[in-house]
Specification:
about 240 residues; alpha/beta; Rossmann fold; 2 domains; four-stranded parallel β-sheet; about 20% strand
Length: about 240
């Protein structure tokens, strides 16, 4: 009789806060993690992407951090792109608040994205998002602040996590092809709530450029920052890089 093998995260437990309306991040994160690493997830209320809703989510990070600390995770991740890139300082402020509340190391999606682009030596970026215009404007400003040039960008004008999660992966392939630019160093599909993971290697093969996504960048950063150099296969060139 074969005994079942259950992965309890003996190498690393990632404690992750995601928006309450997001049904995409968890499946993608679990698929990308190697054996011995497990994501323990909690939710903070966020369904839409208005400025008021994004700010409201950020107000509750201490509660989420304390809950995840109860699970004895190794690190706490605030995992929402639109909130953590809301301003140049937002991600760092959230990280500090989490660390103060939980007594654990922390990082945000925005830090992972910046680190991934820098590791890829990407300066000129094509930005693809499901967002409404005001979120795209803030994200472009965030990337510019960190030294990246957004040479082309598009948002699909979708407001809620529920709608974002229904977009098929082909949308991202089509939009990348539409905005392809020989000057681009990388293509960034922003948002933790979209089916972008399946499109990463398809776009890389078509355009011969690295592709990063919010969920992929977070997983890569979490693994590399905490000394884990292996990974699941099929999620792009970023995972070939060992150093954050």
């Amino acid at each position: 009789m074969n005994m079942p093998v259950i992965d309890y995260g003996e190498r690393l437990r990632l404690g992750v806060m995601v928006p309450s309306g997001n049904v995409i991040a968890e499946p993608q994160i679990h698929a990308m993690l190697p054996a011995g690493v497990v994501a323990y997830i909690t939710r903070l209320e966020l369904r839409g992407s208005s400025e008021a809703e994004l700010i409201e989510m950020s107000r509750h990070v201490e509660t989420g951090a304390k809950i995840l600390a109860d699970a004895q995770v190794g690190v706490v991740v605030f995992h929402c792109t639109a909130v953590s890139t809301f301003s140049a300082q937002m991600g760092q402020e959230i990280q500090h608040r989490i660390e103060q509340a939980s007594g654990l190391p922390a990082f945000s999606t925005s830090e992972a994205i910046v680190s991934a682009l820098r590791a890829l030596k990407a300066k000129k970026i094509v930005l693809l998002t499901p967002y409404i215009d005001e979120v795209n404007v803030r994200e472009c400003a965030f990337l510019k602040h960190h030294g990246f040039e957004v040479i082309a960008q598009m948002g699909l004008g979708v407001n809620t996590n529920a709608e974002m999660g229904k977009l098929p992966e082909q949308v991202w392939v089509d939009q990348a092809l539409k905005l392809q630019d020989p000057q681009a160093d990388a293509y960034f599909i922003s948002c933790t709530a979209v089916r972008s993971a399946e499109a990463i290697e398809r776009i890389e093969a078509l355009l011969d450029r690295p592709v990063i996504t919010s969920n992929q960048a977070m997983v890569w950063f979490g693994l590399r920052k905490y000394g884990i150099d292996d990974h699941a296969q099929g999620y792009g060139r970023l995972f070939n890089l060992q150093d954050v």
